[in-house]
Amino acid sequence: MHVQVLCDSASDLNHDVLERQSVRSLPLKVILNGEEYEDGIGMAPSDVYSRMRNGQAPKTAQVSPQAFRDMFTHYAEKGQPFIYFALSSELSGTYQTAKMVEQEVKEAYENAQFDVIDTKAASLGYGLVVWRASELAKEGGSYKDILELGQYHAAHMEHIFTVDDLEYLQRGGRVSRTAAFVGGLLKIKPLLHMEEGKLIPLEKIRGSKKVLKRMLEVMDERGKDLKNQRMAISHGDDQERAEKLAEMIKEKYGTEEIHIDFVGATIGAHAGPGTIALFFLNDTYK
């Protein structure tokens, strides 16, 4: 029996990719003006960003224990092995909730074969991990090989990103209020990355035009086999700049596959409109 790959909506994989790869995704929740929506289902990312530009401040909520219970039990009852790759535990309590439910379901179904994996990744960095694991699953790969491949990609996935307005990160406690105010005055654009699943400031760049160039330089320093690996760029309702970055990468490295999509509401609610994020591997899987 093939292995089923599961994820949550913070992977930012769109419906077409999920369907094509036979991945099941559990939606996180977005809360706006007291109304709750399913991330990517009840409200499109573009609508969330539009509301944010108009001053609304969305909140997010993790996948419920019951949603995990229903999904995990569904496959355990069928005797189908599955792996749930989760959004970084440093950014959401979703992973911890899934681990709690994992224990419950394994006690009820002793022969169930499944794992809950903390990818320490987010947005399309997380999505690329899920995508590659699901490809191997569709090819009929073994449970052990799919688990190993997914964990390797998660451990070697780079996240390099910038935000258009530090205010959104300040609201989420990612930068101080003073830093956000000064950054706005000086037109400073922060460059951030992920370390062990946490968002970490990397450096500050004055002027938005220099940011994309610097992102390429960081990728050049850290990436490996940049021509042949699948990369991804996610954006906070800024398709034009995302495509510009993709063009720069293709021109420099001849990269054949760069997937571009929205930063979904789960991450976008904290990063804000104008976010640009680049994802690539710093090593290639043997």
Number of domains: 2
Give helix and strand order, one letter per element, not per position: EHEEEHEHEHEHHEHHEEHEHEHE
Uncertain stretches:
174-185
The whole-angstrom Rg is 19 Å
| Sheet with most strands | 6 strands, mixed
Overall outline: globular
Q: What structural class do helix, strand and pairing data support?
A: alpha/beta
Rounded average pLDDT = 90
Q: What is the share of helical residues?
A: 40-55%
CATH top level label of the largest domain: Alpha Beta
Function: May bind long-chain fatty acids, such as palmitate, and may play a role in lipid transport or fatty acid metabolism.
Keywords: Lipid-binding
InterPro entries: DegV (IPR003797), DegV_C (IPR043168), DegV_domain_contain (IPR050270)
Protein name: Fatty acid-binding protein
Label this structure with key terms:
6-stranded mixed β-sheet, Hypothetical Protein Tm841, Chain: A,domain 3, 4-stranded parallel β-sheet, Rossmann fold, alpha/beta, 13 strands, single chain, 24% strand, 286 residues
Quick synopsis:
The chain is α/β, with parallel strands linked by helices.
Descriptive notes:
With 286 residues, the chain is α/β, with parallel strands linked by helices. It has two domains: 4-28 and 63-155, Rossmann fold (3-Layer(aba) Sandwich); 157-281, Hypothetical Protein Tm841, Chain: A,domain 3. It has eleven helices and 13 strands. The strands form three sheets. A six-stranded mixed sheet has the order 10-9-8-13-11-12, with helices on both faces. A four-stranded parallel sheet has the order 2-1-6-7, with helices on both faces. The chain has a three-stranded antiparallel sheet with strand order 4-3-5, covered by helices on one side. Helix 3 packs parallel to helix 4 and helix 5 runs antiparallel to helix 6 (143-155). The protein is globular. Residues 174-185 have low confidence and may be disordered.
